[in-house]
Design goal:
It is built from 3 helices and 33 strands. The protein is mainly β and about 500 residues long. It has a domain of about 260 residues. A hairpin with a 4-residue loop joins strand 12 and strand 13.
């Protein structure tokens, strides 16, 4: 079944289920007060509970500002926010429940046929909430084990998200604006048949504001949405609570027609990757002002990443174009696998200065000097990345690489660290010996119709291939670099070049 046919089937199934329940339950009838001050948790929860008890329906949040702590959605209930309605998260951490790993404003566990819809806003008041929690540490009310001393902030599980759904089936989140989280904005874990459509995320409020996190979910569609986040934009994760359960991985996911701005990476698979990612299609994505990678594919926790299609991506003012990394962070057998990845029709413009300087929360500065980082595809010596196809790719770099600032000459290729057990990031190796693309430990790589351009001179060659087998290059253009040695092949076997 093709991705589009698969998701059309899922959409029909979810909508059919929701057609059963149509009765409205206005929270004003349960005593809710729209003054932005009165805590309405009990009133909203009473409306949800009654709708669930009576077979399902819509819980209406009308125009006004309704302050609330954690509310729990139940099966066959739709939380519907009318225009000018604001569900306002409490800034008192005692008003939040912990259902799974973390706390959240809107929660669900093992519910079926649930929805958040409408033209209203879910506002977590994340900065004020997080700073309130932060003050508790200095007042001696939070143990040091719950505080990230190096980063000087409370750990993630103390800072509430706005949405967290666990082990739910048939979910729709449509139309709403979700803003100002204290931690991740929204998480969906071990869920099936999930539709996220036409939402807006505005969360540059505090650290770790991932826009959308999908963990070990199946049959997911994310479309026509706008994401502005002070961490990863749209991120697929694969936690393994029970490694013996083979079904715990992301599968059959379709992401399209979205706009993303991130203080980390715009589209990311990883970092947690115990189960892995299979049958993922991502297309028609516009990216801007993003600190790290436009596309980051990271598998470092023994899982499998395979059958990934990424198509039609444009990224302006983005710190890195493509980062594909296989590692072995858990140091367990068997080592993970990345294979059968296609990335095509991609245009990226990399700036000389940092890309997110204009935002409230910016990505962390690196503790060492470096020139502009190239795109990179890196496996590990005992496990190469397999079967990567890059086609119709255009990347424009600023250049300016100066060996007196940071230097990795070609005679020191062996000194590029492996770092196979470290956190994956495009900057992880330090200064790299290429300005355009660095490839190491790969088996089966096709580059077709690739154009890389540099605006100012750089001391490094354009591309470096180190320990690469079965490499095919067809129609490669390198512009702006006048050096004689533009491409370096080291330990390359089965090389095919078609001009």
């Amino acid at each position: 079944m093709t991705p589009r046919k698969l998701y059309n089937t899922c959409i029909f199934f979810v909508i059919t289920q929701f057609a059963v329940a149509s009765h409205d339950y206005n929270i004003l009838s349960f005593g809710a007060v729209p003054d932005g001050k009165t805590l309405n948790t009990k009133a909203i929860q009473a409306a949800i509970n009654l709708a669930h008890k009576e077979g399902g329906g819509r819980v209406i949040i009308p125009a006004g500002r309704f302050l609330s702590g954690s509310i729990v959605l139940r099966s066959n209930v739709e939380l519907h926010l009318l225009k000018q309605a604001v569900l306002l998260g409490s800034v008192n951490p005692d008003d939040y429940l912990k259902m799974n790993r973390w706390k959240a404003l809107v929660m669900a566990d093992s519910a079926n046929n649930i929805s958040i819809s409408g033209k209203g806003v879910l506002d977590g008041q994340g900065a004020q909430l997080a700073l309130t929690i932060d003050s508790l540490f200095y007042a001696g009310k939070i143990d040091s084990s719950d505080y990230e001393l190096n980063e000087k902030r409370p750990t993630c599980h103390l800072r509430p998200q706005i949405i967290e759904f666990l082990n739910c089936n048939n979910i729709r989140v449509t139309g709403v604006t979700i803003k100002n989280a204290a931690c991740w904005v929204q998480t969906y874990e071990l869920c099936r048949n999930l539709i996220i459509d036409n939402i807006k995320v505005e969360s540059d409020a505090y650290w770790n504001n991932d826009g959308i996190d999908i963990s070990n979910c199946k049959n997911v569609q994310i479309t026509h949405s706008s994401i502005n986040s002070s961490d990863d934009g749209i991120c697929l994760k694969s936690y393994c609570k029970n490694p013996k359960i083979e079904s715990e991985y992301c599968d059959s996911i379709y992401i399209s027609d979205c706009t993303v701005r991130s203080s980390a990476s715009a589209i990311k698979l990883g970092t947690p990757s115990c189960g892995g990612f299979k049958n993922i299609t991502i297309e028609n994505i516009k990216i801007f002002d993003t600190f790290r990678s436009a596309i980051a594919l990271e598998l470092v926790d023994d899982g499998v990443m395979e059958n990934i299609m990424i198509n039609n991506i444009t990224a302006k003012n983005t710190g890195n174009a493509i980062f594909i990394r296989l590692g072995d962070r858990r140091k367990q057998e068997p080592v993970g696998q990345i294979k059968n990845i296609t990335i095509k029709n991609v245009k990226v413009k990399v700036p000389f200065e940092r890309a997110d300087y204009a935002y409230e929360i910016r990505g962390p500065e690196l503790p060492y000097f470096h020139n502009i980082f190239p795109s990179s595809i890196t496996g590990i010596p005992e496990q190469p990345i397999e079967n990567i196809h890059l086609e119709n790719i255009e990347i424009i770099y600023p250049g300016g690489g100066n060996p007196a600032y940071a230097n990795m000459p070609l005679w020191r290729l062996k000194d590029v660290p492996e770092m196979k057990d470290k956190y994956p990031e495009f900057s992880m190796f330090g200064e790299l010996p290429a300005w355009g693309m660095y490839v190491r430990h790969v088996k089966g790589l096709t580059l077709k119709n690739i154009k890389i351009k540099i605006e100012k001179r750089d001391y490094r060659p354009a591309l470096v291939f180190d320990d690469v087998k079965n490499l095919s290059i067809e129609s490669l253009k390198i512009e702006g670099d006048k050096k004689k040695e533009l491409i370096i092949f080291n330990s390359v076997e089965e090389l095919k070049i078609i001009k």
